[in-house]
């Protein structure tokens, strides 16, 4: 057994942590995390009640149902970013639009906490791009790098030198 490979005595928490890091790196994890965290205060604050001694304060408004719908949709979009990351751009745009709608509907977007977290999550989701595997990266580089250019590239033969010779009155010229 070498010092590089883990042995059979590797702690199971380390194994799970490595698997989680691999899973987290293959999807927009932080985008989904911020979107879920943004949906929680948007859905929670209209239904929350705070007790101070015998005094109960409640934020019950007519927009409670709208806030609940927006919050649940944001949580769902965050989970979608995690588990169905192919639609990350749609989920990011939808999260940004729902965050903007939550400002007038849901107590300034969950007192700006949910609004800001959802905006950041949506922006991260839109900007996230999956990593390229080493084999894909080499194939892409070999396809995009052209060969040496010649003066006669007007005919569309990129990087292919013209090897035909024509005779013009006893003179040999290329092209």
UniProtKB/TrEMBL annotation:
Annotated segments matching region Disordered: 135-175
**A Pfam family for this UniProt protein?**
DUF6114
Annotated keywords: Membrane, Transmembrane, Transmembrane helix
The domain of life is Bacteria
Which InterPro entries does this entry report, sorted A to Z? DUF6114
Q: Does the keyword Membrane apply?
A: yes
Please give the name of this protein: Monovalent cation/H(+) antiporter subunit G
Q: Which residues cross the membrane?
A: 28-47, 59-79, 86-105
| The organism of origin for this protein | Streptomyces polyasparticus
